[in-house]
Amino acid sequence: MTKHKNLLLNNQLCFALYAATNSIIRYYRIYLNEIGITYTQYLVLLVLWENGASSVKKIANTLKLDSPTITPIVQKLEKMDLVNRKRSSQDERVVTVTLTKTGIDIEGQVADIQNKVACKTHLNNKDFNELKNTLNKLAETMAEKEHKLDSLLKSK
Fold first, then answer.
1. Where is 60: in which H helix or E strand?
2. Distance CA 133, CA 130 (A)
């Protein structure tokens, strides 16, 4: 038995976020499987629907991931005819990703899926948006702290 109350599992913010995230992603998987995409593919498509053509690096930055993580996801989306990839003629390291007609056409289906998952939370619109905004602020704060810590460690 722990002597430290802060080490109880139910007192862990990280575990609460982890458990909630897993529950939500499980619901997404049920519905996304019906149209043949994974949750990470869904996230990449969200970026493209929101921003239009984007470099792999921009997609990775938006999703707070690294480019090598995004590349195989984009390759699979390309094989599914949902996106196209094109190397820049000025800089071959830059790969731009665009939606295909099929990728554009499934946006409505995916919007319906997002609504279904949001309904499963049983949160009203106000609570849903407050929670989302609080979590986005938390992510921003943690990223700032991580960046400052990285900078501090690199300067030593």
1. helix 56-62
2. 5
Closest among 74, 86, 84 to 37, alpha carbons compared? 74
pLDDT tens per residue, range 6-16: 989 989 999 99
Copy the structure tokens of residue 68: 């090598």
- The band of 85, judged by pLDDT with boundaries at 50, 70 and 90, is very high
> Which single residue is written with the structure tokens 């800089």?
91
Task: From 67, 11, 23, 22, select the one nearest 44 (Cα to Cα).
Answer: 67
Average pLDDT, the chain: 93
pLDDT at 151: 74
Q: Are 98 and 86 in contact (CB under 8 A)?
A: yes
Domain boundaries, given as residue ranges, for the chain = 8-122, 123-156
* Inter-residue contact 11 to 5 (CB < 8 Å): yes
Tokens of 63: 């999703």
DSSP string, 100-118: -HHHHHTHHHHHHHHHHHH
CATH of segment(s) 8-122: 1.10.10.10
The residues near 75 (Cβ < 8 Å, ≥ 6 apart) are 85
